[in-house]
Amino acid sequence: MNIADEDHPKKQKIAECSPSDDALLIIQITDPHLRKEEDGKLLGMNTRSSLDAVLQLVKQNHTTPDAVIATGDLAQDGSSEAYRCFEEKLSGFDCPVYWFTGNHDNRETMKDVAGTNGALEKVVRMGEWQFVFLDSLLDGEVHGHLSDTELQLLDDALSERPDLHSLVSFHHHPVDIDCKWLDAIGLKNRDQLLSIIDRHANVRGLVWGHIHQEIDAVRKGVRLLASPSTCVQFLPKSESFAVDNLAPGYRWLQLKADGSINTGVERADHIEFLVDYTSKGY
């Protein structure tokens, strides 16, 4: 547990937004792993260039999203330059953009760069939907942990508005994905999270990053969704670290007023990209 987060949370400010239509269009991007250097790479791939390619694809396919959520590992090195770069690249969207941390991020640096731009809102209500964004970063560790403060925030938000369909998002995966090395570095206190989810009938989906691959499953009526990284992809069902040959991508979600979710993944197959397939880690 992060000792700094043990105190009971203050009353959470709620961001209220107006949807553009009855169905909300949400774009998820995740794990860009930007570095301070313009030519910064991850496993041989220039992560700024790959992010540009994915964002170009988003704007081509989905011109008017209601929100963009960025589900962690925005920076590989936790540098202010990486977060400023990310902020600038996402500034072209005419909608709110929400961020939170992954295990490679620096929480304080991210806060310093985001400032008061609204990117770090924790609870957002839009039309018939509520979004709860959680911080699963455990300083100094690759695996994830949700502090008591984060879990209480989630329980409170779900309790306060049982009439709203809810989408809960964080970085680390809360279920095993049949990938041995990744399952060892998922969300360690997943049982605490899932017990809260199970108590609230208004949760429609859990959305995360971290695993650099696509997941679309259902657990007790709740949609479980993970998405491609905007850079390198990891090979599904692998025993040890392995890189996939699929292109960078993003997920779109159409959230309907009745609580149903339509979703899909798009990949930047139109670009050429270099990846070091021989790497044993990153």
Automatic annotation (TrEMBL):
Q: A Pfam family name for this chain? A: Metallophos
Q: Which InterPro entries match?
A: Calcineurin-like_PHP (IPR004843), CNP_phosphodiesterase-III (IPR050884), GpdQ/CpdA-like (IPR026575), Metallo-depent_PP-like (IPR029052)
Q: What is its EC number?
A: 3.1.4.53
Q: Which residues form the Calcineurin-like phosphoesterase domain?
A: 26-213
Keywords per UniProt:
Hydrolase, Iron, Metal-binding
Signal peptide stretch:
none
User: Under which main EC class is this enzyme filed?
Assistant: hydrolase
Alphabetically, the GO molecular function entries are: 3',5'-cyclic-AMP phosphodiesterase activity
Q: Which residues form a coiled coil?
A: none
Similarity comment: family membership: Belongs to the cyclic nucleotide phosphodiesterase class-III family.
Q: Which PANTHER family match?
A: CYCLIC NUCLEOTIDE PHOSPHODIESTERASE CBUA0032-RELATED (PTHR42988:SF2), PHOSPHOHYDROLASE (PTHR42988)
Query: What protein am I looking at?
Result: 3',5'-cyclic-AMP phosphodiesterase
Name the lineage. Bacteria, Pseudomonadati, Pseudomonadota, Gammaproteobacteria, Alteromonadales
Protein encoded by which gene: cpdA
